């Protein structure tokens, strides 16, 4: 991964740039990195703060020849790869909040956005967008975000070498992707569950069908989140936003 590298200065979004390259036939492993994004995108159409030179804003192209329904598994794989890579480079304890936010001390340090194109129910390509708040300082964030987000530098007290971090991310990604292609989802599922902060806690999930509250107990074989409801029954969730369970 990363042998075809497009290193750019200021662009709207690495996602758009890589999707354009993917449509032109770019090969698996192609990587787009930007120093700064002017329209960085997050999940649910949110804006992603991407100031110059302080973060890792990049998109990686995958071309897995698997059915479209496997996309949730790749989402979870991305979270495990990124959390393992960061742990190798920076002395911080990382927790994965379902499906793929990485937290340090309960605050978000990284977000992942998967965008895919499919044909005949099979994935044609997946653009994996990775946003990591590396060397940002408190003043780089809008005030209201500070209680929810943190950078690796703020969390560890150390300035992090971004090139080393990117190399380690590619290494972990390639390893886990190979493992997934050889052995399927089972090993990824165990790794994700071991790093999760979502499991076994009372959780409010805003699903497209409305909010549900329950206790996530684990992943199923397809990558869905298995939530135990008050009456003891289980529901499998593929898409939702986790909310606060307030008093
Ligand atoms: C989220 O947590 O909402 C996902 C954030 C993903 C941000 C990354 S930064 C690189 C890539 N380009 C984008 O415009 N977004 C992703």
Automatic annotation (TrEMBL):
EC number assigned by the record: 6.3.4.15
Keywords: ATP-binding, Biotin, DNA-binding, Ligase, Nucleotide-binding, Repressor, Transcription, Transcription regulation
Residues engaged in binding biotin: 37, 41-43, 108
Domain named BPL/LPL catalytic: residues: 1-181
One GO BP: regulation of DNA-templated transcription
GO molecular function term, any single one: DNA binding
Entry keyword Transcription: yes
Catalytic reaction equation(s): biotin + L-lysyl-[protein] + ATP = N(6)-biotinyl-L-lysyl-[protein] + AMP + diphosphate + H(+)
Annotated Gene Ontology cellular component terms: cytoplasm
Function: Acts both as a biotin--[acetyl-CoA-carboxylase] ligase and a repressor.
Family as reported in the entry's similarity comment: Belongs to the biotin--protein ligase family.
Protein name (Swiss-Prot/TrEMBL): Bifunctional ligase/repressor BirA
Organism for this UniProt entry: Cohnella herbarum
Residues of the full protein shown: 79 to 325 of 328
């Amino acid at each position: 991964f990363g042998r075809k590298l497009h290193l750019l200065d200021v662009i709207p979004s690495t996602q758009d740039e890589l999707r354009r390259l993917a449509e032109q036939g770019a090969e698996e492993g192609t990587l787009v990195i930007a120093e700064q994004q002017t329209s960085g995108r997050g999940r649910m159409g949110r804006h992603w703060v991407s100031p110059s030179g302080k973060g890792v804003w990049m998109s990686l192209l995958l071309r897995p020849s698997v059915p479209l329904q496997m996309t949730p598994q790749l989402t979870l794989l991305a979270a495990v790869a990124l959390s393992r890579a960061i742990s190798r480079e920076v002395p911080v304890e990382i927790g994965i909040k379902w499906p793929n936010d990485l937290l340090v001390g309960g605050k978000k340090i990284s977000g992942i956005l998967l965008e895919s194109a499919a044909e005949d129910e099979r994935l044609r390509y997946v653009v994996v967008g990775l946003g990591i708040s590396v060397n940002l300082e408190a003043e780089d964030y809008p005030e209201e975000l500070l209680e929810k987000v943190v950078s690796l530098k703020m969390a560890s007290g150390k300035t992090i070498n971004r090139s080393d971090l990117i190399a380690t991310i590619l290494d972990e990604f390639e390893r886990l992707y190979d493992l997934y292609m050889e052995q399927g989802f089972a090993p990824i599922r165990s790794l994700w569950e071991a790093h999760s902060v979502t499991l076994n806690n009372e959780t409010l999930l805003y699903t497209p069908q409305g909010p549900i509250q329950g206790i996530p107990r684990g992943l199923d074989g397809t990558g869905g989140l298995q939530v135990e409801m008050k009456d003891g029954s289980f529901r499998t969730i593929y898409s939702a936003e986790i909310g606060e369970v307030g008093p």
